Amino acid sequence: MIRTALKTVFAHKLRLALTALSVMIGVAFIAGTFIFTDTIDETFNDLFDDIFQGQDVIVQGVTEFDVGFSGPPPIDESVLDDVLAVAGVQAAEGTVGGFAVIYDKEGEAIVPTGPPTIGGSVTEDLRLAGNVTIRDGRSPTASGEVAVDARTADDNGLAVGDIITVQTPTVVDDYEIVAVIGFGESDNLAGATFAAFELGTAQEVFDLEGKFSSIVVIADEGTSPDLLRNSIASVLPSGVEAVTAADEAADQSEALSESLGFLQTALLVFALVAVFVASFIIQNTFRIIVRQRQKELALMRAVGATGGQVIWMVVIEAIIVGVVASILGIAFGFVIAQGLTSVMSAIGFDLPSTTAPLATRTIIVGVAVGLGVTVLAAVLPAIRASRIPPVAALQDVDVRLRMSDRRRTIIGSVVLAAGIALILNGLFGDILDLGPLNELTAVGAGALLVFLAVSMLSSLIVKPIARVLGPILGFIAPSNLLRPVRNLIGRRRGVDKLTGLLAVQNSVRKPRRTATTASALMIGLALVAFFFVLGDSIKASASGAIEEGLRADYVVSVSGFSGGFSPALGEELDAQPEIEAVTQLRFGFWDRNGSDEFLMGINTDTVEQTIFLGVTRGSIAELDQGGVMVVEDIFDDEGWTLGQTIPMGFATTGLQQVPVVGTFTENGIVQANFLVSLDFYEQNFEGFGTDVDFVLAAKAADGVSLEDSRAVMDAAAEDYANVTVRDQAEYRQSQEDQVDQLLVTFNALLVLAVIIAVFGIANTLALSIFERTREIGLLRAVGMDRPQLRRMIRHEAMIVAIIGAILGIIVGLFFGIVVTAALSAQGIDVLSIPAAQITALVIFGAVAGLMAAILPARRASKLNILEAIAYE
Amino acid sequence: MTTAQIPITGAVAARIDGGVKIYGEGDTEVRALDGVSAQFESGRFTAIMGPSGSGKSTLMHCVAGLDELTSGTVHIGETELGSLNDKDLTLLRREQVGFVFQAFNLIPTLSARENVLLPLLIAGEDHDEAWFDQVIGILGLGDRLTHRPSELSGGQQQRVAAARALVSRPAIVFADEPSGNLDSKSAAELLDFMRRAVKEFGQTIVMVTHDPVAASYADRVVFLEDGKIVDELQDPTPDSVIDRMRQFGA
Ligand SMILES: Nc1ncnc2c1ncn2[C@@H]1O[C@H](COP(=O)(O)OP(=O)(O)OP(=O)(O)O)[C@@H](O)[C@H]1O
Ligand SMILES: [Mg+2]
Fold first, then answer.
1. What pTM was estimated for this model as a whole?
2. CB contact under 8 A, B2 and A780
3. CATH code of the domain in which B132 resides
4. Number of structural domains, chain B?
5. Per-residue pLDDT reduced to its tens digit, A597-633
6. Contact indicator for A523, A273 with CB cutoff of 8 Å
7. Atom 22 in ligand 1: which residue has the minimum CA distance?
8. Distance B233 CA to ligand 1 centre (A)
9. Which domain holds residue A566?
10. Could you read off the pLDDT of A469-478 as tens digits, one per residue?
11. Half-sphere exposure for A626 (CA within 13 Å, toward CB)
12. What burial class does residue B88 get, using C-beta atoms within 10 Å of its C-beta: 0-12 exposed, 13-18 middle, 19+ buried?
């Protein structure tokens, strides 16, 4: 049996190769994601190991609740004396760190797009400096001296002796470069720019006078880090902890891996979409193969093969395809991983060019998915094959083994209803209790069911759609567009109705096949359409919120991950007569019953001049007593009452009982559901660097022209190179640009799914043409020329692709509309459907069809007429 | 060539001179045509007979522009086929040649009417409704025109194919055992139709057949053996054809 299956695999090389290719792309995407994230993991593991190289114990502030971006709260300088007094401590020094932006020689800030701009102190004892090595020069020992990382130095032509500007949370000042430093072999820390100062200077510029971010300890010879950690811990005041350097390295790299987990999940979702699309192609291929081998299979049944054996024959073939495709896919995964690494380095994250070794998990998941999907998709055609009656061997009849239209309609409708119910339930909740199924899974599973249902039901609408499309395509065919010219030069020809007619007939001949092929394309395009709708709605909502809610004329914000700017800027602006009000907006995460929640700290005295909040209960002024204001939806949902206290967990201060002092409705600008006063914020969020601003909203004074106020704004901001001033229109544009960037990323990831679908159209087309060899021979014999034949096939492909695009748009619009509706509480309250982009999708579908038709059309037109006519 | 003239009897519709067709090379070499020269006059019905493997189909394919001779020349009308590229050959077939094959003559997705009009549809030309009606009328297919081929009997299918071959009024129609798969009644209807097309419309037809009765519908029979023309018979009857065949032991 296996030998028979192997033989058929070889006999059907080409069609199976195309099938394998579609599986391979999906598996490669999965494997590539794993390899890529493993590489990042390994890189950061190494990085953190290296950073703490040679250190034994770290003493730092206790973090009550991990807030990701900010480190532990600073500790008092005096702790160092306590530590030094502990027996077994060989050396210990305090260090500080924070954000620092280095300027190049032209005075432009060096701000990478992705990685942060950081700075810190250098230890006097270089054994305490981790893997920091001085490549050139000497350690900074006085104020006015700085060391920079080798990559920043190289890229910007900086060298020892140069005078450069560095911006820190407290000052923008000039420093002399006294050293170029490396980190072991690396020139920088995964792309971050790094400026190092002598300890005293560092404390000053990072606004940590009298404080340390941490104390680094080396143990005496023969004292184990664990032991030393325990003895140090016993002398520490409350709020300060001691951890071994090894634990800290593991902790930090784990925290980073966790944040990468999101990236991994996102990439895997796109990979699974690709695999899902591939499963349609596989199913189609096997269905066609079974049909073409109907007689052969019937003959096997006639000579005594059981139905089960026939199923096995087909399934073994699928297993062979699945295994080969999975192995190739995993190998190709390295190429994908390399590609992702290049993308990362293009946006500024330096990753090593070597990839992590292949993890067993990658192989298992890759093969399981590749093989599983192929076999699953082949099972239905295989069962169908087993139902071929032995008499089919003797008759030339086309045995109908399809599901009846009635059954298909019923089952399809039920699946569709179930899918829609799951989605709505996941989005809006409370309709059905699904127990452990979380919302996102429900929406995902629902989407899957909707795709399956639409592909089932779509065979019923293939005919009408094709009938409408045929004449349209026939009309825009080049031969018809050229008709007036032809008539002019005397070579008269009628409208070429025939190729269009034949294309339509061919595409509706096997509605299931056309529907499945079109559905494969539908999935990718539906998701693209979904993102278009969602993106456009987000943009429209943001614009609306800015228009209605932003009373300020300017928004000042930091560029890149450069850690904010000194509050001096806000004060300076506030002092200008041209500027009426400046509001500082400081965001932070807090722990709300175990999940992260966002809040915003604001200047209570100016916020009403700069931002419309739609206060419905209480007043902003009441925040000054240390309360919190809540967006009305949550307040109502939770059934809170004014004056009641709610538990809020903060990184520095732990769990606090905070009174609710009011509600508001307009959260579009602040993008937070909870508001507190700036004082409250500072008390609870003192941490990694302290008093810095990230966003300011500024309103010009009445009667001041926009040119004048703008000039004042720009002049003030000029000293802060990582600061951007935007007026309302620019701010709106920047919000839209962010959304667009995300859209581009998502759609780029969906391209793979679309490519697989195009392969699917090409494969199905090639197989169908193969079935119609004699017909094509006949058409050629009675005078159809090659261009006409190619056009016929192109039209057929375009019909299939456009059906896919139309279905995709319908499904995508549905997804977009319900998801947008579900997000209205998150401030996405405008539904906007980008007509131009949606229309472009149809055209894109037609072009995809054209591309898919290239090879099959070429093959068909090269058929030898006589052989084709004689073909059995 | 949108308005093909009905050819005047006496002119030559197609001609093959010194036609040689060799398949394969060396040991496997087969001389399917071994120096064939023949003329097919306009407005006449010629039958080609001969034993299996004698080269009948090969001769037909080469004269019809579906295959190329190894050496020798073929003319359709004044046009020498050897000088034509694929595009011109396709145009020539479309405008000057009609075909009826033994089986699989029709496009399954098109109706009988569309199948009949296929050459004109391919050319994007309008058809002459009167001529179409006349052809369909003789064929007795009037009520079957909207049917798909799968809904027609084998005889009806072959008649649709014959109508398709005639509808564009080509200079010459080739038929390779058109009645080979039909019962005698259906065969007689088809052959009768072909003869009427020759007599009444002056159509030129060349037909390959094994059947002496079928051959007797023709004006002339050409006998082929081992790739050579070995004899010819004018105004054949079934008996005279059988006599001739006995002479050659076919
Ligand atoms: N494509 C080909 N390759 C090789 N040999 C061929 C090919 N086509 C035909 N032949 C050979 O050429 C010879 C003539 O074949 P042809 O088909 O013309 O015979 P025929 O007279 O039509 O026979 P039949 O009555 O069986 O149809 C035969 O020996 C055949 O085997
Ligand atoms: Mg033959």
1. 0.81
2. no
3. 3.40.50.300
4. 1
5. 888 889 888 888 898 988 999 888 899 988 999 998 8
6. yes
7. B57
8. 23
9. 561-721
10. 877 776 665 5
11. 8
12. middle
